[in-house]
Structure formats: structure tokens, C-alpha cells
Design brief:
The chain is mostly helical and 133 residues long. The chain has 2 domains: 19-97, no CATH class; 99-133, no CATH class. It is 53% helix and 6% strand.
């Protein structure tokens, strides 16, 4: 279960760069990296919990932006601040991480820890990469 995300202004202002825009690329590492960078940015800049999902939605482009703008009800809920950050993150994961990606990574990690993997190929969204053990 995911921990509740708390927001507070730090006494010292940290320099956290703006996150890159997310274009809807359906890839586990890309989605998770964007969510982490977005979360760091939101915390560092003291964005209220009510405004986090809307702020993150402003960093969507391409297919991801169309996903939000193409649904007027969701768009309005984001603008109104009625979508929580955790709900927004879950929606991004459900819509932009391929269903088998988490399973594939979990299997690979399990095999690595059990010693059953030497050098193997992992199929990511559209590429194959060789990963040493």
C-alpha cells in the first residue's frame, strides 16, 4: 500500500529543476522517472496537495495531454483540485504502463536474486537490452 504523501514548505528553498514534460510514452521506467521528478518538484515548491494533480497535468504533452483534455469531466476535476496526487499517479500508471511491464520486471528481479540469471535479454516496450547479472 502506498504511503500518504505529505506536503510542507521547507525552511530552506531547495533548487529542484522543473521536471521534463511527459508525452505519454508507454514505458515503465519513463513513467516512474517522470512521477518521481514531478513529486520532487511539487514538494520542493510547496505545491498544496489540492493543486498537485493539476500542476502535474500541466506538464503533460502529446498523447498524455490528449488523454486529459479529451475527457472534459476529468479535466474539470483536475482544475478544481478534486483529484488527489495519489489518484492522479495511479491513473497515469494504469493508462501508460503496459500491463505486462510490471510482471516482466518482477520476474527478472526475482530470477536475479535467486541466481537463475546470468546474461539475459529483457524486452522493454520496443527494444531489447542486454543486462549483465
Amino acid at each position: 500500500m502506498e504511503q500518504e504523501f505529505t506536503f510542507s514548505l521547507a525552511e530552506e528553498r531547495l533548487h529542484v529543476p522543473r521536471p521534463d514534460k511527459y508525452d505519454g510514452r508507454m514505458d515503465l521506467p519513463t513513467v516512474e522517472a517522470w512521477l518521481r521528478s514531478m513529486e520532487r518538484y511539487l514538494v520542493a515548491h510547496g505545491v498544496s496537495e489540492r493543486r498537485c494533480a493539476w500542476t502535474a497535468a500541466c506538464y503533460l504533452t502529446g498523447f498524455a495531454e490528449e488523454w486529459v483534455c479529451g475527457n472534459p469531466e476529468v479535466y474539470q476535476q483536475l482544475k478544481d483540485g478534486s483529484v488527489s496526487w495519489n489518484t492522479f499517479k495511479q491513473s497515469i500508471r494504469e493508462n501508460f504502463i503496459p500491463a505486462n511491464a510490471v510482471r516482466d520486471v518482477t520476474c527478472y528481479v526475482t530470477m536475479c536474486y535467486s541466481g537463475r540469471v546470468g546474461r539475459t535479454k529483457i524486452r522493454t516496450t520496443n527494444t531489447e537490452e542486454t543486462h549483465p547479472r
